[in-house]
Amino acid sequence: MSHEVTVGLEIHQQLDTRKLFCDCPSCLVEEEGASFQRRLRPTQSEMGEIDRAALAQAERKMRFRYQAPPSASCLVDADEEPPHAANAEAVELALTVAALVEASPVDEIHFMRKLVIDGSNTTGFQRTAMVAMDGFLEVNGRRISIASLCLEEDAARKVETSGSEITYRLDRLGIPLIEIATGPDMHSPDEVKEVAQRLGSIMRATRKVKRGIGTIREDINISIPGGARVEIKGVQELRMLPIYVEKEMERQRSLLSIRDILQERGVGPAAVESIDITSTFDGCTSKVISGALKSGGKVLASKLPGFAGVLRSADGRLRLGAEMAQRARTRGVKGIFHSDELPAYGIGQEYVDAVRQALGSAPGDAFVLCAADEAKARNALEAAVERANEALVGVPEETRDPQPDGSSTYSRPLPGAARMYPETDVPPIAVPAERMDRIRANLPELPEARTKRIAADYGIHEQQARQLVREGWDDVFEEIAADREMAALAARTLTSTLSELERDVDISRLDEAAFKAAFAGVSAGKFAKEAMPDVLRKMAEGKGVDDAVKELGLSAMSVDEAREIVAKVVREREAFVREKGMGAVGPLMGPVMAELRGRLDGKAANELLREELKKLLS
Amino acid sequence: MSYSPYLLSLLQRIGAVEGDLLEVAVDGREYSGVLMPHHEFSHPDVMILKLKNGYNVGVMVTPSADVKVVAKRESQERAPRPMGDGKGLPQVSVLGTGGTIASYVDYRTGAVHPALSAADLLSTVPEMADICDVKAEVLYSTFSENMTVENWQHLAGVAADRLNSGVEGVIVPHGTDTMGYTAAALSFMLGDIPRPVVLVGAQRSSDRPSSDAYTNLVSAARFITSSDAAEVLVLMHDSSSDVSAAVHRATKVRKMHTSRRDAFQSVNAPPVARVDFEGGIDHLAPYRRKSNVKVSPRVEMEKDVALVQFYPGMSPSMFEGILEKSRGVVIAGSGLGHVSRELIPSIRRAVEAGTMVVMTSQCLHGSVNLNVYATGRDLLSAGVVPGGDMLPETAYVKLMWVLGQTSDLEEAGRMMVTDMRGEITGRREMQ
Prior knowledge:
The complex is a heterodimer. Chain A is α+β, with helices and mostly antiparallel strands. Chain A has 20 helices and 21 strands. In chain A, a hairpin with a 6-residue loop joins strand 12 and strand 13 (230-235). The mean pLDDT of chain A is 90. Chain B is α/β, with parallel strands linked by helices. Chain B has three domains: 5-71, SH3 type barrels (Roll); 91-283, Rossmann fold (3-Layer(aba) Sandwich), CATH 3.40.50; 305-417, 3-Layer(aba) Sandwich (Rossmann fold). Chain B has helices at residues 5-13, 118-123, 128-131, 149-164, 179-190, 213-226, 316-325, 344-352, 374-381, 392-405, 409-417, and strands at residues 21-26, 29-35, 46-51, 56-60, 66-71, 91-96, 103-105, 112-114, 133-138, 169-173, 197-200, 232-237, 244-249, 253-255, 264-266, 273-276, 281-283, 305-309, 328-333, 356-361, 385-386. Chain B is globular. The chains are: A alpha+beta, B alpha/beta. The interface between A and B is large, with 52 and 50 residues. Strand 5 (108-109) of chain A pairs antiparallel with strand 4 of chain B, so a sheet runs across the interface.
């Protein structure tokens, strides 16, 4: 049976230990520290091959600047000191997670150097080791294979790109990561998210992983029948996973349609060449073109025979032009124009006609043009035409960057296989059977067990407990619910209230500390339980608990003040009260709470109401 | 540690050699991978396999394991590497001695090998051919801690030959640990030279994309062809950044860090020049200029010379043992050039018996001065030769060379206090 889509996941989780090969704390910092510059250079392997991904990056001739904050980096991170032995706690965690996913550990762990010359590693390689293989997990009754579990170092953090110089900060470099690669076993966008959630909660079970945005990142490998393996690298938001999968399926389907259209037309590869048509653009008012010409650039154009209509179709479904532009940008230009989108951008029909004439275009031919420094423009058009020609074959294998809207853009070719050689500076680590026996005998509580225990211990619904564990709020829940009075409210807040808030506010500020502060506020009587959603909404905007309470006019009410309000409500409905007797409590709670506006919690209000009713009825 | 007898015989029995593709079934697990060399720290029963995904893993081979060779290693004909074709450009002689800069990694196994041929050495730096016509030779393939006095003498002879045959300069790729010593030795042995001899090292091996080997080698070639300096020099990174290299006088340079790129520093003097990786060359101090002089190397060395660091509690009897066995001893004394009072009689006796004792400072920065304290004055009275602001290592090499040149102790003493190759400077500027 052919599946609509085949997806494999690679999940990278930062560990909450010191760095993998030095004694630095693993935290991100604001300070920049000392700065230094480096260049990287592709090296020749023994076979004389240079990895093609490495070569593509080298073509951009990037120079790199690094910030070395002293509180979170050292000479090891600066590639000025050999790595220390691998952090023992990180190794133990990797083996623990291996045991949790039933993977077989290797007998001896050997670190490798994986060539990465985009500057994100000062060394030009990432240190990584295979720790275990061949595990599995079950999600919704389906068995998802775990191909490998690796322990590796995180890359430096990109803080700025200006011109051809990229600046990285070394705080993130060297933070230990567990990388788990699944088999290509997922077949729907939602399943991808469920598997990622499941892997996340298994790793969190160790209680020693980092939390928060950027601490867990996913690479998604996606292919559809007839398409090709495309890797979307570095997705940080779990909820976006299904969207990336859907959009990539759509993109691959569109590329297959383009291939079919071109094949039907009998289109062959376009010549990878460009001509100088600068003179054609005399007096052109397009900002891009006049800007380029002013700074001494040229306008070059390439002909794409038979490609009209697939660069961008009228319905926007076919978008080969966008793919070509992404390739062109990797050669250092801001962009290209193609004939399916012209006339536009200040380039009138007369210019379009002139370009077509200069190129000797026939009807049905398309063109691309680029206005920039001549060498760059030529290089960019070469990349664009090569990309157009790949469309004749179908979907090219490549690595893509996720964009916030769920789409992705070209980043580089899929890395080839010859990327690794041994890290000789780090000694191998033996994993004797006794060590695994000890680890297996002391496994942390798994998500299912945790769900059951939390539900039982705190008297909340199992459904709520499961959601807490799956979404990683279980730790903070247990902390808050240590005061059992707060258990129900905490469960509700961290599940349904949070989902409701997420619909219309950015909840990224609501971290564990924020929740703890909010619940401390309730405990201290600063505001009533009922006001929790409103307080959190203010806190999501960046307010502290006290400011939120003040702005909402929630400052806790004295009992006397509250009693007066309750008494007033009761007096106003005296006839009803006399008729219903104590049965009026239920119906009156609503008006009472409305008058109290969340400044007194429901339980206290209920008591006051009963007292006032008794008073009236006595 | 090497393989256990069991595993060794198993591999021999099935005819498995490094590079072969093996299949291993052990305890219900199966591996398929290329056999890698055994790691020194691996368990004797562990074999290392490179899996298809590129990772190496260690597999414990128990008696129940089933190991078979699936495919023999592909023979790898390494394409002959043509020497650079910098024809018409100035000729530069490259004399390889070994060390990180001249080692390369077998990417398949990860083993670090010394470059076997000069072409190996240079094929990774094709830019050299745009700067000069490289004539490369590999003299030694050794880590620099293994360099010997004989190596220095031989190297000096070859360098002199090449200079006399008219090359524009000589580049000596060298391990960094003792590069300062070799540089000083060449400086004393070669004397007046018509064109420069530049020692170059690397702190990161050339298999790494971040290696400093390329920039240092290219900068040395540029310095030789663009500057008119003619001395023995050491060229290494000027800072942690890949921005410029510093060119140090051979007798004033010292490795001051175990691992940084800018480990080499000129001590008690500014560097001679700075080579910008993108731009020009700045000369920072006076230097000897190129000429047409013929080199007449004087390579004789007295090998019974010791370099001893003084420390509190140093036992006179141990110290005496060294003094008795040596024709010359350089002491790296404390502070301005001191040793404890109880060692002074031993020194006096040794000097009287014909051993030359030279005082330098373990402070490295600054000059010795034996006039300031009583201990210093007593040392002078005992016959110690003050080494000025010479680095202890330079004084050691110089003393070997001086005692190799003359058996007249008075003459030797005069030579030791005379600046011959820039090793002693009379003034040290605020920096």
